Amino acid sequence: MIKNINFVSKFKKANFISIIIFFLSIFFISLKGLNYGIDFKGGTLIELRTDVTVNASSIRDSLKSMNLGDINVKKFGIDGDYLIKVEQKNVNNSNLIPEIKKTLSDNLNADVDFRRVENVGPKVSSELLESSIIAISLALAAMLFYIWVRFEWQFSVGSIIALFHDVIITLGIFSILSLEINLSIIAAVLTIVGYSMNDTVVIYDRIRENLFKYTKISISDVANLSINETLARTVITSVTTLLALLSIYLLGGEILRGFSFAMILGVIIGTYSSIFVASPILKFFRVSYKTLEKEEKKIEP
Amino acid sequence: MLNFSKINIILIYLIFFFIAIFSVLNLQNKDNIIIDKKVNLGLDLQGGSYLLLEINSDSLVEEKIQSKVIPIKKLLKDNNLKYENFKIRDKSLTFFIEDVEKFELLFFSKKENLVNPYIDNYRSFELDYKLLGNNNIEILFSKFGLLTINNSALKQSIEIVRRRIDDVGTKEPTILQRGDKRILVELPGLKDPERIKKLLGKTAQLNFRLVSDNSDFGTEDLVSELGETLKVSKRIVMSGENLIDAQPSIQNQKNEPSVSFTLDRLGSQKFGRATTDNVGKRLAIVLDGKIISAPNINEPITSGKGIISGNFSFQEATDLSLLLRSGALPTPLDVVEERTVGPDLGEDSIRSGIISLIVGFVLVIIFMFFKYKIFGLVANTALIANLLMLVGILTILEATLTLPGIAGIILTIGMAVDANVLIFERIREELKTEKSIIHAFDSGYSKAKITVLDANITTLIAAIILFAFGSGPVKGFAITLGIGIITTLFTAYFLARHLTSMIVLKNNNRGLKI
Predict the structure, then answer these.
(1) CA gyration radius, chain B
(2) Confidence of residue A273 (pLDDT cuts 50, 70, 90)
């Protein structure tokens, strides 16, 4: 069993790296932007299957005559499966899907099966984006409140900073890799928030317990001890969760790939941040046995 | 923490079996259903269409404000109020009036006010007016007047949508109001969503109008089905409201698909009179502003039965009669969101979902066994129990399982062992300092309790927020994730603890390791 790693000595280096990646992520998100899917941008998505092996560019060319605006065609899973995304201008054309189908089967001379069609109008997409932002903010606020009730405010601030760190970096990586942000990615981000919090709470619980137990030693040492004591659990839970997620990522099909990738990123970043972000913040706030004592007194005068 | 009373043990296993047994119901044979409870498959797994429709009441408001013109003019004349410059705008009426005060008194009278009725529910008048200066006033609908128009249009639209969908005969459609302007339609297992979209996209306002140059009521130029431009009177001889039935039929002479309709008593009278007076003229049958056919009136039709033929295919005749039977929508409906999944993609998703579930499950079980040996078996038993209970609760609630929902189950498996890992690791620590094995296990369980609770509540909060804000498939994920946390707590803290206590109490003196 790995015992007594000196985490505190690595805090400075880790925090430095975290800050750089964090701001790099903000830089990319604000300059390059996020690659919103049709859920948030509006438009039409078609997943199609053909029996002959056509290529993406022939699909794109055959749709050019329809004047649909920006068209994105890419391979999706097995040979002959493609995903078409149309940034649609004429939203009210109720015949759009049959027209596209006809154009494609005429031009490609092949049977075209539309396996999935999604069409989101501009009004709905902006509402979905708005409610997603509200949901994530609300989740962060609820966590902040829960930890504030269960612990002291320093812990609550620490855990929220760690959560911000996780969410921003996950989105930053999505921005750098130009991966699509859709509703399921938002679900993944919210789950990451829950998971990362879960990890942080376990360590915080132990830190609080140890602060009462060892009143004389510094917060750094208490943090170090607590991280070490819970390390086996942190590693094992991350491994089992990652095993489950890898299985979804590799075998769960194309539709779940983005979701499981975001979750895998989030679990790794969330585990890292519980140790290297959430814990050093307590030191920054000079949390000590006395902080806890004061709080206790406030509750039971 | 390791002592269980007999009643406790019985209760724990009773709860477990009672819930877990429901998961078995999903294996029932279709023809031989014992208890009719099952996890529903979401549209993304069984295939089908999700449509979000929005009513557009603008045209209706325009229509309604126009219908106020005659009553208002009459009110002004009857009361000797002088007015000038009467104009019909898009959604309002403007005119100049000498005596504004007297007008206001009449306009806002609560007694038998036919022009501007008082809506009791909202304590507001239907119309409102604005002073534009220089005794010019503008009449428009009040906030609640608009609301009343909107609400009744929405209710009526839902009714018509339901009739049309029922008529097509899809299985178990869901039709719900969403907000104050939208209708949610879910059609599982639908083969041809385009047909439904077409049917819902038509307002199907049918009227019969004479082709004539007589401009008493105004005329408009409409193009007939043969491509000729006809001057059609704006006067409506009869409208679709008077139809009581419409059926597709084949006309014998030409073998041409057409629609035969039956009129109610009032409609028969109107139609009889109009056809009697206008023999030799042409009657335009206008649907949503387009002529479907404009036949000659050869003889008076007094039977209240008629036939519309207009170069239809049989499918078109069937759809048109369906539309006419179900009645006209008060406003056009826009499809603002659509998600359709074909049945074979749904099957593929179920297959890949189940494969990844099994693989993820087996990987976690193997890992736990190698890590904790005999207690790994305890954790794995709890994990299997967890899965059975999770599916059992989904069955009891008849919840909808979506593809992200399956992902939620897999994720629950990965995260569920956390509770047991937390406890086992704590016991390991306790064993280092505590001499008595029973004590070590006991305090391991009680010390880990708070942490396990705290850790799971945070995930539960995330799941609840997802459930509240998510839609469709994402909601399915939130449901499985949330229920998974509850079953995890139960299986870790009751089932696994009881199994552990049995092992510990039996092997107390044999140097038990974890």
Answers:
(1) 35
(2) very high
**Minimum distance, in Å, between the CA of residue B365 and any CA atom of chain A:** 9
Q: Which amino acid is at B311?
A: N
Residues B31 and B81 in one domain: no
Whether B179 is covered by a domain: the verdict is no
Interior angle at CA A198, CA A195 and CA A199, nearest 5: 95
Q: Specify whether B389 is located in the same domain as B493.
A: yes
The total number of structural domains that make up chain B? 3
* Close Cβ partners of B379 (under 8 Å, ≥ 6 residues apart): B368, B372, B417, B420, B421, B424, B496
Q: What is the pLDDT of residues B244-300, one digit of tens each?
A: 899 998 877 778 888 999 999 998 998 899 889 888 888 898 988 888 888 888 888
User: Is the pLDDT at B215 greater than 80, yes or no?
Assistant: no
| 316-345 of B, contacting A, C-beta below 8 A | 334-342, 344-345
Same domain, B359 and B214: no
pTM for the predicted model, two decimal places: 0.85
- Class assignment of domain A8-37+124-299? mainly alpha
pLDDT tens per residue, range A186-222: 989 988 988 999 999 999 999 999 998 888 888 889 9
Whether B328 and B348 share a structural domain? no
Helices (H) and strands (E) in chain A, counts: 11, 6
Question: Quick check: is B299 in a domain?
Answer: yes
Predicted confidence (pLDDT) per residue in A25-71, tens digit: 999 999 999 999 999 999 999 999 987 777 888 888 888 888 777 88
**Pairs of residues, one from chain A and one from chain B, whose beta carbons lie less than 8 Å apart:** 209
pLDDT score of B64: 86
What's the confidence (pLDDT) of residue A297? 57
Compare CB distances from B335 to A94, A243, A255 and report the shortest one's residue. Answer: A94
A244 and B425: CB-CB below 8 Å? no
B320 and B347 share one domain = no
Contacts of A230 in chain B (CB under 8 A): 425
The 3-state DSSP class for residue B169 equals coil
Q: Would B195 be classed as within a structural domain? A: no
CATH number at residue B412: 1.20.1640.10
The parent domain of residue B316 ranges over: 202-338
- Interchain CB contact of B360 with A (< 8 Å): yes
Residue B143, both tokens? 């906030």
d(CA B272, CA B247): 21
Co-location of B356 and B500 in the same domain: yes
Q: Are A283 and A301 in contact (CB under 8 A)?
A: no
Using DSSP's 3-state secondary structure scheme, residue B282 falls into strand
How does B317-356 read in b/e, with b if 16+ C-beta sit within 10 Å?
bbbbbbbbbbbbbbbbbbbbbbbbbbbebbebbbebbeeb
A78 exposed, middle or buried (CB, 10 Å; 0-12, 13-18, 19+)? exposed
> What is the model's pLDDT at position A167?
94
- Is the same domain home to B43 and B101? no
Where do the domains of chain A lie? Answer: 8-37+124-299, 43-120
The reported pLDDT for the residue numbered A92 is: 59
Interface confidence (ipTM) of the complex: 0.89
Chain A residue with minimum CA distance to B202: A94
State which of A18-32, B37-51, B169-183 shows the largest mean pLDDT: A18-32
Statement to judge: residues B462 and B357 lie in one domain: yes
Last-in-domain residue among B112, B130, B147: B147
Which residues of A fall within a CB distance of 8 Å from B462? 139, 190-191, 193-194, 197
Does residue B43 sit within a domain? yes
Quick one: three-class SS letters along B310-335? CCCCHHHHHHHHHHHHHCCCCCCEEE
Asked whether the beta carbons of residue B462 and residue A139 sit closer than 8 angstroms, the reply is yes
Q: Which of B338, B363, B396 is the last residue of a domain?
A: B338
A164 burial via Cβ count (<10 Å: 0-12, 13-18, 19+): middle
Assigned fold of A43-120: Alpha-Beta Plaits (3.30.70)
